[in-house]
């Protein structure tokens, strides 16, 4: 199936949401860099490979990076276009056998199973998203001894010309509170901000701030 072709109607997916993200991806041949997110790479580098759940995987930069290091990855997105690009890129990289692409509208369904790593990278949307519900489902998907990594934009990019008057970025502490963890069963390994250099749509560069929460389920 072409990435621009129609996909079967899925009652578990809101077609307006899927259409929004498909249209975004179809504007350009490649939307994201194809590289792993920097905080994810930093966190995972010292870990032994296991099973990973990549929520909102997009075109698959994180999933392919993980698979290249021996992880078995379930990569989830609502966009059939994004998943098609992920599958093609994984095949080119020789890691397709270690990645399962799954189409989920996380407002309606969530992947089954438990994982050594659950990654929620920039799971923020201009559309309605019950973020706390999704994050708590992510908590339940972490296996004993496994980790949940949540990375969110901490502020607008410096090149943003305007922002929505009601836009608000949760602090790391607020993100952690939203997970509603049982303190006896979890250990917080990282809580704070990370900074990186980014490039805007017109080639501008600037410092971006990300808010990071890394928690580990006790064995």
Automatic annotation (TrEMBL):
One of its GO terms (molecular function) is methyltransferase activity. Pfam families: Methyltransf_25. Keywords: Methyltransferase, S-adenosyl-L-methionine, Transferase. The keyword Methyltransferase applies. Coiled coil: none annotated. GO terms for biological process: methylation. SUPFAM superfamilies: S-adenosyl-L-methionine-dependent methyltransferases. The keyword Chloroplast does not apply. InterPro entries: Methyltransf_25, SAM-dependent_MTases_sf. Residues 53-146 form the Methyltransferase domain. PANTHER family: METHYLTRANSFERASE, UBIQUINONE BIOSYNTHESIS O-METHYLTRANSFERASE, MITOCHONDRIAL. This is Methyltransferase domain-containing protein. It comes from Micromonospora viridifaciens.
């Amino acid at each position: 199936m072409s990435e621009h072709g129609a996909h079967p109607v899925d009652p578990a997916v809101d077609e307006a949401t899927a259409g929004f993200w498909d249209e975004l991806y179809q504007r350009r041949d490649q939307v994201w860099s194809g590289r792993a997110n920097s905080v994810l790479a930093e966190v995972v580098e010292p870990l032994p490979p296991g099973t990973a759940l990549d929520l909102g995987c997009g075109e698959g930069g994180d999933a392919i990076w993980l698979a290249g290091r021996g992880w078995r990855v379930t990569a989830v997105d609502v966009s059939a276009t994004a998943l098609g690009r992920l599958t093609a890129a994984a095949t080119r990289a020789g890691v397709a056998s270690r990645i399962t692409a799954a189409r989920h509208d996380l407002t309606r369904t969530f992947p089954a199973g438990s994982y050594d790593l659950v990654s929620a990278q920039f799971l923020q949307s201009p559309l309605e998203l019950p973020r706390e519900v999704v994050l708590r489902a992510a908590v339940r998907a972490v296996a004993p001894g496994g980790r949940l990594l949540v990375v969110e934009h901490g502020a607008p990019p410096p090149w943003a010309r305007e922002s929505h008057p009601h836009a608000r970025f949760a602090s790391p502490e607020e993100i952690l509170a939203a997970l509603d963890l049982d303190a006896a069963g979890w250990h917080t390994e990282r809580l704070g901000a990370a900074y990186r250099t980014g490039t805007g749509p017109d080639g501008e560069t600037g410092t971006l701030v990300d808010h990071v929460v890394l928690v580990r389920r006790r064995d």
